[in-house]
């Protein structure tokens, strides 16, 4: 019993596991403790053997880590569906998930069909994702030799940094924006120069030019449409930034929902431009993880050498190829989301405590007004089963971001908003 006890306590040392266990109610430590003991006790004795005592000169495991990683702030991801469901005490189908800009229409039916009859799950995937890159060549209008595929655009952001940044190098981030740029910079021991966006969320090009001069950063990350507000970068600003001595990474994760065309082809003209896109939003494949980017030829060969050979799973390649086989579905879903975004914007405009911002993406950012807390509003909506994202940090205080779903999701959100506002008015009376 003592042995199994010792083994069972080890997992609690991971903050991730500990915070997941905290989500189970009530009382989490007792449930988690007893269930893990039960699992450990039922293992055969050979698997529950005590590890030998380590020699005394072995230091803490953390001492082996690269020092800058010890300073890393943990990334706070969105809660997985099942954990959310347990925490809210609601079944998954009773949760309206508008907090992570997922595509609630899901992928074309061809995707599940193709995955269901996948031929060789036992064989490693094509390290060059040739089939998918050929399909993307047609879809994006840029030759496959410029295209690299990744385990989500997230992987490509990290890969770009791993290939370009030495410890101590700088990147420019234009907050509020997608937080992975700053997160990956920290993982890669780079520092972040922040050039905050203007009041209307446009990139402050003058301030950016000054920062480039002063700090000589390696990379500038631009997001268009920008997450969390949905604004676009205009051509004039982009061209001006491309003339600066810096690598420009243009993240177009949401470009399909805008009236602007992708700049993927521009990498043929600009040797300092990388354009990133993803299947997560346009094709409803966020859970499968497929992103892609177009790169100048002068650069892409080195990314090929540095990437993990099997970074794109066979499942991911099959799913993305199947999705591209049904462009009509993708187009119809895009149109439906744009239509719903306009409808949602009109409705949010009439909510007294919210000011929505016009968006070119599949989400709408809203300022929360009238002394109301964005955090509390998010929590109150969650109690009604509607998840939205809130912002209460130095870069964006008192905002919520709502993903655009189907008409029924808009309806559920508006009903929940009415309930929350009515209840809080009743409390004040
Ligand atoms: C601007 C932006 N870029 C990239 C991503 C990540 O895309 P992927 O799911 O392909 O990793 C997101 C996800 O929300 C995003 O908002």
Describe this structure in words.
Helix 7 packs parallel to helix 14. This protein is α/β, with parallel strands linked by helices and 429 residues long. The chain is globular. A seven-stranded mixed sheet has the order 2-8-7-6-5-3-4, with helices on both faces. Strands 9-10-13-12 form a four-stranded antiparallel sheet, covered by helices on one side. Strands 1-11 form a two-stranded parallel ribbon. The termini are far apart. The structure holds pyridoxal-5'-phosphate. Pyridoxal-5'-phosphate binds next to helix 8.
How would you classify the helix and strand content by structural class? Answer: alpha/beta
Please report the number of helical segments.
17
Tell me the strand percentage band: 5-15%
State the order of secondary-structure elements, H for helix, E for strand. Answer: HHHHHEHHEHEHEHEHEEHEHHHEEHEEEH
Largest sheet features: 7 strands, mixed
Globally, the shape reads globular
Distance between the terminal alpha carbons, to the nearest Å? 58 Å
Q: What's the helical proportion of residues?
A: 40-55%
Q: What is the alpha-carbon Rg in Å?
A: 24 Å
Q: Give the strand line-up of the largest sheet.
A: 2-8-7-6-5-3-4
List the helices and strands and how they pair.
Layout (H helix, E strand, L loop, with lengths): L1 H8 L5 H8 L5 H14 L25 H4 L10 H8 L7 E2 L11 H8 L13 H11 L6 E4 L1 H13 L5 E4 L6 H8 L3 E4 L10 H11 L3 E5 L11 H8 L4 E5 L21 E6 H4 L8 E4 L2 H10 L7 H11 L2 H23 L4 E3 L6 E6 L5 H10 L2 E2 L1 E4 L4 E7 L3 H22 L1
Parallel strand pairs: 1-11, 3-4, 3-5, 5-6, 6-7
Antiparallel strand pairs: 2-8, 7-8, 9-10, 10-13, 12-13
The structure holds pyridoxal-5'-phosphate.
Pyridoxal-5'-phosphate binds next to helix 8.
């Amino acid at each position: 019993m003592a042995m199994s006890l010792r083994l069972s306590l080890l997992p609690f040392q991971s903050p991730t596991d500990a915070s997941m266990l905290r989500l189970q109610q009530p009382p989490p430590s007792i449930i988690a403790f007893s269930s893990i003991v039960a699992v450990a006790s039922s293992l055969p004795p050979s698997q529950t053997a005590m590890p030998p005592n380590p020699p005394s000169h072995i230091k803490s495991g953390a001492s082996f880590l690269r020092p800058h990683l010890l300073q890393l702030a943990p990334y706070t991801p969105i809660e997985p569906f099942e954990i959310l469901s347990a925490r809210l005490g609601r079944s998954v189908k009773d949760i309206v998930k508008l907090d992570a800009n997922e595509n609630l229409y899901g992928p074309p039916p061809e995707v599940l069909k193709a995955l269901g009859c996948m031929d060789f799950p036992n064989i490693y995937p094509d390290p060059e994702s040739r089939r998918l890159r050929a399909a993307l060549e047609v879809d994006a209008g840029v030759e496959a030799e410029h295209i690299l595929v990744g385990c989500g655009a997230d992987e490509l952001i990290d890969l770009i940094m791993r290939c370009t940044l030495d410890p101590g190098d700088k990147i420019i981030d234009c907050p509020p924006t997608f937080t992975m740029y700053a997160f990956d910079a920290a993982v890669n021991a780079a520092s972040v120069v922040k050039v905050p966006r203007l009041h209307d969320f446009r990139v402050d090009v003058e301030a950016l030019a000054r920062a480039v001069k002063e700090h000589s950063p390696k990379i500038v990350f631009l997001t268009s449409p920008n997450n969390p507000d949905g604004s676009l970068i205009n051509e004039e600003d982009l061209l001006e930034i491309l003339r600066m001595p810096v690598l420009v990474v243009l993240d177009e994760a949401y470009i399909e929902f805008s009236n602007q065309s992708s700049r993927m082809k521009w990498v043929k003209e600009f040797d300092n431009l990388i354009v990133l896109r993803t299947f997560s939003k346009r094709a409803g494949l966020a859970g499968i993880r497929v992103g892609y980017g177009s790169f100048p030829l002068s650069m892409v060969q080195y990314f090929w050498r540095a990437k993990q050979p099997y970074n794109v799973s066979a499942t991911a390649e099959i799913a993305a190829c199947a999705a591209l086989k049904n462009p009509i579905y993708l187009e119809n879903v895009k149109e439906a989301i744009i239509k719903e975004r306009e409808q949602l914007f009109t409705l949010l405009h009439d909510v007294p405590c919210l000011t929505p911002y016009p968006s070119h993406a599949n989400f709408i950012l809203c300022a929360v007004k009238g002394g109301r807390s964005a955090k509390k509003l998010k929590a109150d909506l969650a109690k009604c089963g509607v998840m939205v994202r809130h912002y209460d940090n130095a870069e964006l205080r008192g905002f919520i971001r709502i993903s655009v779903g189907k008409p029924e999701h808009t309806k559920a959100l508006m009903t929940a908003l009415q309930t929350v506002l009515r209840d809080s008015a009743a409390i004040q009376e």
